[in-house]
Structure formats: C-alpha cells, structure tokens
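The pair is quoted verbatim below.
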Amino acid sequence: MPQYMLLIYQPSDRTATSEEMAADLPRWNAYTEELQKAGIMLAGDALHPGDSATTVRVRDDETQVTDGPFAETKETLAGYYAINVPDLDTALKYAAKMPNITYGSVEVRPVVDFSQYPAAEEQASATA
C-alpha cells in the first residue's frame, strides 16, 4: 500500500499562545487517534518552530552550518504524519480533516517506494 507524508504548515506570522495550544491539543489527539484506529498511521510528530532549526550544507567539501530554516517562507513546517493508505484520494481525505486546516495547510506527498527499483533492491541486499 502506498505511503504518504502529510506535511503540516502553519503561517509564519502566527504563533499560537499557550492557551490556544492547550485548546487545540484535544483536537490533535483525536485526529491522531483516528489515524491509529484506522490502522494507517506510521509516524507523526510536531516540530519546534523554524527559528530553532539548524541548516547544514556541504559546498566544495566545506560544511556550512546556519541557524534557522533553509529559506524564509510565509508558512513553516510545524509537523508531519506518515500514513499508509490505498491511494492519493484517501490521503487527501485525511489531510482535509487536520485540525489546523482552516488556518494552515497540509502538503500531501507520496513516499518513494525504492523496492520498485531493481537496482535499489540489489544494492540493499549486497550491503546486508
């Protein structure tokens, strides 16, 4: 069955207060429980704000470490769910139920199944 990432985005200019977070937590818990009961949840977590990120690049054999996210955006990645569902339509249905959908957005992206590529399977068995 295909796997999809539901990437949760929040507006960059919107920081929830602790009261808002406490009020939203039951909705997030119920959503997570729905995914678990449906047997489709593989993983999921919230992320700290973008200003807590560290970006690493290697250019010309030199490692560059920068505080903060990769790029300035109107929305920041706030968390994710990895789900295992039959098709994109089902993944979109679950994305539309996400508690932040009225003020944020959810990017639904398929996960690459490397087992579909014979060279990847051969390489994996050769290193095992």
The first strand starts at residue 3 and ends at 11. The chain has a mean pLDDT of 88. The domain at 3-112 is CATH 3.30.70.1060 (Alpha-Beta Plaits). The radius of gyration is 18 Å.
